[in-house]
Amino acid sequence: MREDYTDQTPGVVTGAVACGVAPLPLLGVYSVIFLIHGSIKPVQPPDITSTKQGEFVAGWISLALLIVSVVAVLWMLNGKRRWPLAIVQAGVLGTCIDFALDSTKGGPFVPSLMIATSLISLVLMFAPSAWWWVGRPTPRLVEGLADVLTRRQSERTPATGVERPVAVASVIPEEIPQREPAA
To answer: Count of domains in the chain?
Structure first.
């Protein structure tokens, strides 16, 4: 846990991690299936390669990707590194786009769901509070984009001189103006 922050993990980081774990169950299942089909119980014809050894190698590759993905998720959640998870999610996104466009690789529903989770994870992990979480200053471009997307403006409070973000129409104003009674 970061020493300078004792509260909860920022919501965007939690959301990025929650969407980032979506491929993990699939990788776990595929690892077991391909390792079994390549060693203990071979199938004819092989599922994804043309040989029994190819299925076994695919199982080890799936297992390695599972381990890398788990470590990347933990690094992001702990605020150590963001780039390994971003690379994993970009790989998942590219693979699932290929699977969704090619009808010979199965139905489009699961790849489409994985595309959505990967995109959401990538967007959330580059939000301003996620930059802070991993100990990096937020680039001006990201801050400007966040300001435009949330229509956030800044104003200074007269008493403290501290900058305070204001929501779209200042939903909760500091001072509620009194309405004059109708005559």
So the answer is: 1
